[in-house]
Amino acid sequence: MATEALAFDSVDAYYGESLVLHRVSFVLEEGALLGLIGRNGAGKSTCMNVAVGLLPARQGAIRLYGEPITQLPPETIAARGIALVPQARRIFKSLTVAEHLLIAAQAPREPTHEPWTPETVYAAFPRLHERRKHFAGSLSGGEQQMLAIGRALVSNPRVLLMDEPSEGLAPQIVADVMKTISQLKDQGLSIVLVEQNAKLVLDIADDVVVLNTGRVAVRERAEALQKTGVDLSEHLGVF
Length: 239
Ligand SMILES: Nc1ncnc2c1ncn2[C@@H]1O[C@H](COP(=O)(O)OP(=O)(O)OP(=O)(O)O)[C@@H](O)[C@H]1O
Ligand SMILES: [Mg+2]
Fold this sequence. Notes:
alpha/beta; Rossmann fold; six-stranded mixed sheet; four-stranded antiparallel sheet; 9 helices; 33% helix; binds adenosine-5'-triphosphate; binds magnesium ion
């Protein structure tokens, strides 16, 4: 049986008194890529924020490799091995590329795979190497996205969460970012990819979860969705 890397088990979450996630359940298997899709405001980023402890789940459980992490503070969850590439990247404009990577670097928990270091990130993203002494605020949108991904990788996570990494990028850059994500999956990383563009997700995901107004509307293998040509348009915006 596949090992469960990250699981949401009937999770409810609120902003103040407003219910934003309702009984959300899904499983990310080890080494798999789970695509989380849904229209604006469906609750995708909220799921990511709950997973990393920025917003507490009010009900239900979240497990990382079988261990409950539901009420742990964000720094403990990060130390246990979940890294988030946040929507809108949240880089520090007045730090250089190299400083971002140095600050985020952490040794891996299990020394089973080649660890990510600033050097291996530079090898994967030569453009970041060229611009390592530049302030992050002066990078292009695509370069900032690469930096946000690189910063998550040097923490050597067991689970990588990516919240709309293609947002605001030109199509060619989106293609590069998707290629990078698929290479990370090929290297065995367990990934949740949040996207609005279902097509991008179906191409590289193993499993797909569609959120609609805070509820799981569809949970399927990507292959099955492609084969049956299921129409997801009722759950997604028009693009
Ligand atoms: N900090 C907040 N305080 C109150 N409500 C919020 C907050 N953040 C998000 N919401 C609301 O929660 C709901 C889910 O938002 P969320 O950001 O999770 O959606 P999303 O699926 O990530 O959308 P998008 O594709 O636009 O990023 C929305 O109705 C949103 O308005
Ligand atoms: Mg979002």
